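Study this pair:
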Amino acid sequence: MKTFDEVFGRAPDVTASAPGRVNLLGEHTDYQGGFVLPTAIPQDTTVHMGRNGTAEHRVYAADLERHARFPVGANAEPHFAQYVAGALALAGVQEGVDVHVTSTVPMGAGLSSSAALEVSTLRAARELFALDLDDVRVAQIAQRAEIEFAGVNCGIMDQMASSLADARRMLRLDTRTLERETLPLPGGAQVLVIDSGVPRSLAESGYNTRRAEVEEASRLLGVHELRDVTDVQVVETLPEPLNRRARHVVTENARVLAAVNADAAAFGQLMNASHASLRDDYEVSHPKVDELVELLQTHADVFGARMTGAGFGGALVALVREGAAEAVAADVLAQYDGPGRRVVP
């Protein structure tokens, strides 16, 4: 793996990092003004950056061993560099920079590797150019970068979690107002994250389709966002599959609000219900993910488990008895025959 010095022939001017995230509850609600409950993970993305005195940006992704060059303010090819291009352009960077990226956040696992890349790029640019950007503004620019440059019509949760959360507490976030608070995990519990080994790509999956479906559901119900629907019976007036898509969003918001004061057992049951809703109503799970979730949910030391992220593969999150995560992971993975399975430590 080449260093910044080896690629660009000098030392970087600045270095910045940002973590990935795992979402405990509140999936597919952030683009409907809903409530989410993510936490950061220990894995992060690191960006080394330096001015290059030209009118183009040069990006090297060390883990992929891939290069990209593109004009200042323009989008990039290949796809990995689009997140960097969007962050730099939307932050107003007007001179060329060299960017070296390394990451321990698993890609394609639903742990927000893209948000970590966007936020770490913006943090480096903020330091290098003394940009007047607070952490919320960083998240907002990062979200726009993903939408406008990478073509993923995402909500704000991933970028807010990467910019503001830490790995020791949960971030309860109202994605409409951006009101937020940090909360402890339920007593006697810890988080376990397992990558199913089934890769997925947001831009190539049904993510944008699901977003269009709930936007149509909102329009038919005459509300700005499904966040404004509190009576789940209202969604049953919608045609298939819009009724099920809306049912997930409405019930998922309720689950996040209920989880704030829940003990570990109750929190786990809310996670189990969330997975069932994502599988059946939102239809964003995957058979191998469902298999692994079931193994977790039936383990004696697991309070609850669910898919996490946009779906169609990727990672799972479980709330397990404190101190039992390693043993639970070993037990469950011994019974699972999915591809490339691994624990995210």
Summary: The chain has two domains: 4-182, 187-344. The longest strand covers residues 35-51. Residues 242-259 form the longest helix (18 residues). DSSP finds ten helices and eleven strands in the chain.
